[in-house]
């Protein structure tokens, strides 16, 4: 039985609200689909730098649309996203490096599953993307971890571990692995020229190289999906059924 | 009964392959959902210019991903998309202005429905995005229209009409209407600053202002959806059920 389970790796960073949507949906489906979900905390700042992604021009209609889109998705997915009052400070001045190192440390120490990784990640998202609270200070990480059920002594050890070279390197490696997951087959390189022009002035659906990133291992091949809007295709890819963002409710 | 039908306007241009996906899905659902689908042929070139959308930087991973993404979507949606050999020439040197004026002319003359608009649009997509054929010359437009079931004399009249000021203005108006459909509520303006920075380095799902664009009229409010990946949300918005890209097959 175990050999038929499809492995899905989910790369994410708690600084990204769209990652939160992807994370909650995949955590719900891990008990519904015959999959082995591997949570892959990584560092989005490193992804953006490593992929050479550039800021898009300032297009007012686009930003207006994204606001509405995120709000609608959060409601539909039932994830309590509420932007921080000063998102620039929260995301770029403060950032998520210490938080993601802490999650990596939790993952390094956890045995027999990833419940702690899941719950600590969720508590961190709750802080930055729902309650407008800090996620950079040791006291903030500690509070999130305690809420997730870890003991004070565990937290103390994890805080120490999270600043070690071992954990810094681990997060770097995970981030690099996400960067190295390019798309499926080899013949696509011939289309680079084509898609350059496609993005220049055609359409509308431009996926920056970012998070969340789901890597589905199917028949020895890695299929890569970006964003929080390809679940139906992911289901199709792994031979499962998409039942909307709340599969438990769908089953009732 | 008629008053309970939700109106969905679908703005599209045959130069855009993602528009084709959206068009086919909405044409399938017009017989499944209690909707009044209004096809809105428009000119994407005018949208890109009018919205101030800028070309993104050249990010190789992004282009690789888009290639795979479009290929997977086309297969899953069962729309026979196959990129032209020289997409740059097809899309930018030749473009779709005469084709979309022709579709606007077909719409201007059609009475009692939009079957001709639907079929002519589909035949034009088949030419540019499946068979690598021209869509700029009168002979090309004529061939597409004849395949869609129009007579030679009808086509002749439409070709003449398509270069008239009346039709040029009609296409301009439709394009401007698409541009004027910004997003729902008013309070979102406060988030412009926020989303500017969000797109600067966060995430992953950047919607250029482009096509397809679906405008759902619900309870006196216009809800705007870009792209070919929000059908599930559209269904939710209008109180209908999403059954995948092939609802007829789903019903069997």
From TrEMBL, chains A, B:
<keyword id="KW-0808">Transferase</keyword>
<dbReference type="Pfam" id="PF01323">
    <property type="entry name" value="DSBA"/>
</dbReference>
<dbReference type="GO" id="GO:0006749">
    <property type="term" value="P:glutathione metabolic process"/>
</dbReference>
<dbReference type="InterPro" id="IPR014440">
    <property type="entry name" value="HCCAis_GSTk"/>
</dbReference>
<dbReference type="GO" id="GO:0004602">
    <property type="term" value="F:glutathione peroxidase activity"/>
</dbReference>
<dbReference type="InterPro" id="IPR051924">
    <property type="entry name" value="GST_Kappa/NadH"/>
</dbReference>
<feature type="domain" description="DSBA-like thioredoxin">
    <location>
        <begin position="7"/>
        <end position="179"/>
    </location>
</feature>
<dbReference type="GO" id="GO:0004364">
    <property type="term" value="F:glutathione transferase activity"/>
</dbReference>
<dbReference type="GO" id="GO:0005739">
    <property type="term" value="C:mitochondrion"/>
</dbReference>
<dbReference type="InterPro" id="IPR001853">
    <property type="entry name" value="DSBA-like_thioredoxin_dom"/>
</dbReference>
<comment type="similarity">
    <text>Belongs to the GST superfamily. Kappa family.</text>
</comment>
<feature type="active site" description="Nucleophile">
    <location>
        <position position="16"/>
    </location>
</feature>
<dbReference type="GO" id="GO:0005777">
    <property type="term" value="C:peroxisome"/>
</dbReference>
<dbReference type="InterPro" id="IPR036249">
    <property type="entry name" value="Thioredoxin-like_sf"/>
</dbReference>
<protein>
    <recommendedName>
        <fullName>Glutathione S-transferase kappa</fullName>
        <ecNumber>2.5.1.18</ecNumber>
    </recommendedName>
</protein>
<dbReference type="InterPro" id="IPR044088">
    <property type="entry name" value="GSTK"/>
</dbReference>
């Amino acid at each position: 039985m175990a050999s038929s389970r499809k492995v899905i790796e989910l790369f994410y960073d708690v600084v990204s609200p769209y990652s939160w949507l992807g994370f909650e949906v995949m955590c719900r489906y891990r008990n519904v689909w015959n999959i082995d979900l591997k949570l892959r905390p990584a560092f989005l700042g490193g992804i953006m730098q490593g992929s050479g992604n550039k800021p898009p021009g300032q297009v007012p209609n686009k930003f207006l649309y994204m606001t509405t889109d995120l709000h609608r998705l959060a409601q539909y997915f039932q994830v309590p996203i509420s932007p921080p009052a000063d998102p620039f400070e929260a995301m770029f001045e403060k950032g998520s490096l210490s938080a993601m190192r802490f999650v990596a440390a939790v993952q390094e120490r956890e045995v027999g599953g990833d419940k702690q990784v899941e719950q600590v990640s969720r508590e961190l998202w709750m802080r930055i993307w729902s309650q407008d609270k800090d996620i950079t200070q040791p006291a903030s990480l500690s509070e999130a971890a305690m809420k997730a059920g870890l003991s004070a002594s565990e937290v103390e050890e994890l805080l120490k571990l999270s600043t070690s070279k071992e954990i810094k390197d681990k997060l770097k490696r995970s981030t690099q692995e996400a960067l190295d997951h390019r798309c499926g087959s080899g013949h696509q390189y011939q289309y680079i020229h084509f898609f350059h022009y496609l993005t220049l002035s055609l359409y509308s659906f431009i996926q920056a190289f970012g998070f969340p990133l789901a890597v589905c291992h199917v028949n020895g091949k890695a299929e890569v999906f970006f964003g929080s809007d390809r679940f139906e295709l992911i289901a199709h890819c792994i031979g499962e059924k998409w039942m909307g963002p709340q599969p438990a409710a769908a089953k009732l």
